Amino acid sequence: MNIEIYYFSGTGNSLAVAREISEKTNGKLIPIPTVMNHDHITTNADVIGIIFPVYYTGIINIPLIVQRFVMKLENINKPYIFAVCTYGGGFGTTLKLLDKMINSRGGRLSSGFGVHMPQNAFTKPFENKEKLYQDWKKEKLATICECVLAKQEYKFDTDSILIKPVVNILERIMKTAIFKPIFLKSMSNTAGFKKNPNLPAEEIIHLMDNSYHTDENCKNCTTCAKICPVHNIKLVEGKPVWQHHCET
Ligand SMILES: Cc1cc2nc3c(=O)[nH]c(=O)nc-3n(C[C@H](O)[C@H](O)[C@H](O)COP(=O)(O)O)c2cc1C
Questions:
Q1: How far is CA 89 from the centre of its chain?
Q2: If you take atom 4 of ligand 1, which residue's CA is the nearest one?
Q3: Strand blocks (E) in 123-238
Q4: Which atom belonging to ligand 1 lies closest to the Cα atom of 10?
Q5: Which of 40, 146, 167, 214 could form a disulfide with 92 if both were Cys (CB 3.0 to 4.6 A apart)?
């Protein structure tokens, strides 16, 4: 069986998950940024996997690079498609939204999983890091691989009963006509565009790196430039300079 596993990962959680699944299923691991220079993405795979981090509980969107990737997929009505989103707290409507995007390309998501991983969106280090990695391997990895290898239908994972009501309320608020512009305006402020809050989300996201900086603790190790998945960091005199095609 020809299995292709496409992944996007900002800080390594989704990469860790994608790697383990590819090892257990003998699937080919393909970083999404490496195929984005094609206008259309066609594949002969029997199984396509899409693995990525949750951004904004999927209420606003999935990571834009993943959305652009899905919109380039061609002839996807035959392969079995599965998705795994890694999340730090709650994934809300992420899988439903991805399914809608895949539907618009003529395919469908046959199974969708959420994997709880360390939260990377806050500056405070996540204390349960090791436990979360162990739990994922013990509790989820085998289920996902068995399901994928058998091309089984699987009702999408949903948030825990504690998180669900919070996400539902957030979803309702965010769907209001007033909230989305407020949210985009605050993002655009972060991106340094106080004077022009009306840029489309796609452009604002790319410019979010306007708020990124280093300080005297930067040791010029150059790791940031080496690992940025979309090559958005150049080194100038050993220090990172962001290039404004950020994916956050
Ligand atoms: C811009 C941004 C938005 C995020 N939004 C959410 C969110 O809404 N819900 C959540 O549970 N985690 C959220 N996270 C956390 C990541 O989804 C989570 O840590 C993920 O495992 C990171 O995967 P990666 O290391 O492959 O990038 C967000 C992270 C970023 C950078």
A1: 14
A2: 55
A3: 233-236
A4: 27
A5: 167
Q: Choose one of 54, 56, 166 to mutate for the ligand 1 pocket test, by most ligand atoms within 8 angstroms of C-beta.
A: 54
Quickly tell me which residue has 């290039």 as its tokens. 243
The count of other CB atoms within 10 Å of the CB of residue 179 is 15
Q: Which residues line ligand 1 (CB under 6 A)?
A: 9-15, 53-57, 86-91, 117-121, 248
Using CA atoms, how far apart are residues 117 and 140, in angstroms rounded to an integer?
A: 12
3-state secondary structure at position 234: strand
Domain boundaries, given as residue ranges, for the chain = 3-149, 179-242
How many residues comprise the chain?
248
Q: How many CA atoms lie within 13 A of 92 on its CB side?
A: 23
Give me the mean pLDDT over the 179-200 stretch. 71
* CATH of the domain spanning 3-149: 3.40.50.360
What is the position in ligand 1's atom list of the atom closest to the CA of 17? 26
Residue 174 Cα to ligand 1 middle (Å): 18
**Residue 103 near residue 129 (C-beta atoms within 8 A):** no
* Nearest CA-CA partner of 155 in 198, 193, 121, 109: 109
Per residue in 71-125, pLDDT tens? Answer: 999 999 999 999 999 999 889 999 999 999 999 999 999 999 999 999 988 766 6
Where on the phi/psi map is residue 180: left (φ > 0), alpha (ψ -120 to 50), or beta? alpha
Q: What is the distance between the alpha carbons of residues 206 and 210, in angstroms, rounded to a whole number? A: 9
Burial of 159 (0-12, 13-18, 19+ CB in 10 A): buried
CB-side exposure of 194: number of CA atoms within 13 Å?
Answer: 1
